[in-house]
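idk why but the lab printer keeps eating my pages so im just putting this in chat instead. protein + zinc ion:
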Amino acid sequence: MGSRRNQLTDEQRAERRRQECETAQRAVEALKSTEGWQRWLVARASFHRYSLSNQLLIAMQRPHATRVAGFRAWLSLGYFVRKGETSIRIWVPMKPTKKALAEWAANGSDPAAKPRTWFKLGPVFDRSQVEALPAPATPAPLDLPIEPVVGETLAWALEPLIALGDEIGSAVTFEAIPGSADGFYEIRSRRIAVEETLTPNGRVGTLVHELAHALVRADRRDDDPSLSYAEEELVVESVAYTVCGSAGLDTAGNSIPYLAAWSESASLATIAATAALIDRLARRIEDAVDAALRGETLDADEPHVDAAAHALPVVA
Ligand SMILES: [Zn+2]
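predcted complex ->
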């Protein structure tokens, strides 16, 4: 593979780069429709450790994908890619070769000329495209258990979520809330209240929603889009949907947030910035929950592409 790459002319390489950017741009444009937006949120629940660019590429190319890996990574998990399957292409990091690094060192180690990691669209396959290898191979289990909304299977997640609230100055209380609301976030005091009669799993779902309201303010950055009341609710519902999905909480009963008319007419830059905000806030909550879970998830084969390494290729 390495030697083939070197055979490309500069012109061919530039052309490939142009095609890659076009593909990535199309994946972002899909966010402009409610269907594309929902496809992304569903995909994000399974691919929350991937960069936003890669979530969008997966959502566009294989909307129902739940787990992807490269050809060899699947083999090491005990599965093989079925013949004739078309790959999904996502950004994968290409580290500089030992040879390139040695040449650089031999030529004086100029920091400005140090070979860098770059990204190209590389092939991965979804689990629906693979089959278990026969014995004696022992295929790794792939299913994340789906937890019912009613129950206490996710009770362990309450503690890290409450700790995140404390960290951002939002104390969490469980109390009797008048009316039909399951929870609220009080802007002035930054307090989060969750209905005390909810089951632990129900509390998790509500707490994630209210934490997202708190984070919209606590984690605000200058380039975040400014949000109306309705827009904030869309952001918060989207965060809650994808975070609950990634934690394995049954989201089938929840409606997937849909873009209101304003969003379908909004500029692509605004929609992409809103998606980036949702991804960032969701990641903050997922990181808190994942830290509590660490060691229990199967993620050895996931390409840990740094989200920051790939800003969305949006032309404003
Ligand atoms: Zn809300």
